[in-house]
Amino acid sequence: MITIVSTGPGLIECMSGEAIEAVKNCDVVVGYKKYVTLLEPLLDSQELFVNGMKKEVDRCRKALELSKEGKKVAMVSGGDAGIYGIGGIMQEIVLEEGPETEIYSIPGISASHAAAAALGAPIVHDSCYISLSDLLTDIEMIKKRLDLAGQGDFIVSLYNPKSKGRPHYIEMARDILLRHKKSRYPPCWDCQKCKARQPRSVYN
Amino acid sequence: MITIVSTGPGLIECMSGEAIEAVKNCDVVVGYKKYVTLLEPLLDSQELFVNGMKKEVDRCRKALELSKEGKKVAMVSGGDAGIYGIGGIMQEIVLEEGPETEIYSIPGISASHAAAAALGAPIVHDSCYISLSDLLTDIEMIKKRLDLAGQGDFIVSLYNPKSKGRPHYIEMARDILLRHKKSRYPPCWDCQKCKARQPRSVYN
Known about the structure:
The structure is a homodimer. In chain A, helix 6 links the parallel strand 6 and strand 7. The first copy, chain A, contains 7 helices and 7 strands. In chain A, helix 3 crosses helix 4 and helix 6 runs parallel beside helix 7. Chain A is of the alpha/beta class. Chain A starts with a strand and ends in a 26-residue tail after the last helix. In chain A, the strands form 2 sheets. Chain A has a 5-stranded parallel beta sheet, with helices on both faces. Chain A has a two-stranded parallel ribbon with strand order 6-7.
């Protein structure tokens, strides 16, 4: 049995009761180091399997292996596991390598909603999530989606806004959106996963 | 002080610890009847102000009035209060009628994420939220957004899918999306706010 546990924006008090119980009652916690560190107050006798970024496939295989040994596995993921989290990869690997495995998914609060609450800027109307990571999505598709979102006057939440390899995608996204949006719309930076409740906002 | 409390998809165990504490520790709970009923296990000596649909403005004015009397008010909203919830109206009314009032927003799990988890169908890639309610958005704009979402191959979460006055908008939405999406994409009905964890899904 694998429970995919969404841990929300980075504070224990932002996790659901269901998510907390799943972590407390599992045999093994599997996850990216940063997310597991958050859970320390909930850890007692659980085994841990922790690794780093870009090791998602290894992590999912390990979770499946442990589940096949009869262990109750909590696969943890920040935010909501289905929103650019481990949920999709975990489901794929189970489907391919252990389709008899039972999976239960616990949803969580995604960064977009947490940031909007922390900013005091509720999203209110129709909106989009767009990831600026081009690891799995072609950059031309990302640009097309940004342009369509601008045409539709959607509120846009950008995920994976920048990395060392692509420091300028955030400016590219802003420029595409500003083709359509007027400057009275304040773009807001993510609030460091809602930790501080002291977000920075930038008006352009 | 007004705390906007997002109560998530309809189960106490899907609420965050922060949301539960806010309800337990307030003087007055203000909300739509259905959402307040969910909170019964958390209610003790709190006053209640409860009303029905389309009474959102009255509800927000009452919350502001109670806050001005010095009470700690929990304004509750299903899902995430910023996603088609009470968050936007509450902020507007405070801005217009009591800008000195302190507001704190607690995010929650929106129906889209809860439904995806219950269905075992994580959203995974770029996605949109579109409401089919034409009370505040012109129907032509709704159609345009559906078409743009289809063009961009976004995963689409439809909110307010139907009502007595507009029973066929859901079919309209499907037809617009199917201009672009192939039939291998299974549209899935909302899972009754995740209550049963027995969602229905429909393949068209």
